[in-house]
Write a structure and sequence with these properties.
The protein is α/β, with parallel strands linked by helices. The protein folds into two domains: about 60 residues, Multidrug-efflux Transporter Regulator, Chain: A, Domain 2 (Orthogonal Bundle), CATH 1.10.1660; about 150 residues, Mannitol-specific EII, Chain A (3-Layer(aba) Sandwich), CATH 3.40.930.10. About 45% of the residues lie in helices and about 20% in strands. The chain is globular, with a radius of gyration of 17 Å.
């Protein structure tokens, strides 16, 4: 998002969601914005925070699809962000406090993490605002804002805890699947979170829980993105 504030048409172009639907969300108080001279204005930082926290519950599958596909021509597909080395099916984290450190250690295997301490700190900062856990045993830890200097390129790391970790999930259950996301710009950040939300709505977490090895887990992930 190149500007601090966006108009309704600019937001519609940016997200791919119809302007009328966005206006209804804003009018109901769900989407953070205010009217200036009868025109909606949306603060960039507030909007990004809201979408990260609420897209999984406040946007319909169709709206998520629009957000997931409203991306720049040079966007990296998710299949290009997850390497085999960045999958750990025997996650060593045992508590919510240790997840950020341990999943960044998984990501470091790729050789693409330049500043692990910065990334860990930003993940913990985001969790303090509210857990990134979703119903169904999934969490998508991510920084509050893109970190273009912490990694060589956008990346995803995938970890599985067979025992499960109490991660303040909204359904009260344990979290078994952790998907770290770190991107280099706002638009790709939202695109990636939206696409992951859609992929995991189709039962991907359950299938990953049963994956026998890293190769099987990667195939499941790539198949889910293709579908």
């Amino acid at each position: 998002m190149p500007y601090q504030n966006m108009t309704l048409p600019e937001l519609a172009r940016h997200t791919g969601i119809d302007a009328r639907e966005l206006e209804r969300l804003a009018s109901r108080g769900g989407l953070p914005g205010r009217q200036v001279g009868g025109q909606w204005r949306f603060n960039r930082a507030q909007l990004l925070d809201w979408l990260q926290r609420e897209m999984h519950t406040q946007l319909s599958p169709r709206q998520l699809t629009s957000l997931a596909t409203a991306t720049s021509p040079d966007a990296v597909p998710l299949s290009g962000m997850l390497a085999l080395d960045a999958i750990e099916l025997h996650f060593s984290a045992r508590s919510r406090a240790s997840v950020a450190r341990e999943i960044v250690a998984v990501a470091e295997r790729t050789g693409l993490v330049y500043d692990p301490d910065e990334l860990i700190g930003r993940l913990q900062e985001r969790e303090e605002l509210g857990s990134t856990a979703l119903p169904g045993g999934l969490a998508i830890p991510h920084p509050r804002h893109p970190l273009p200097f912490a990694t060589a390129e956008p990346l995803i790391a995938l970890a599985r805890s067979q025992a499960g970790i109490p991660y303040a999930a909204p359904d009260g259950g344990l979290t078994h699947i952790f998907v770290l996301v770190t991107c280099h710009d706002d638009r790709q950040h939202l695109h990636t979170l939206a696409k992951l939300s859609l992929m995991f709505k189709e039962g991907l977490a359950r299938r990953l829980f049963d994956a026998e090895d890293n190769e099987a887990a990667l195939r499941l992930f790539l198949d889910a993105e293709a579908q």
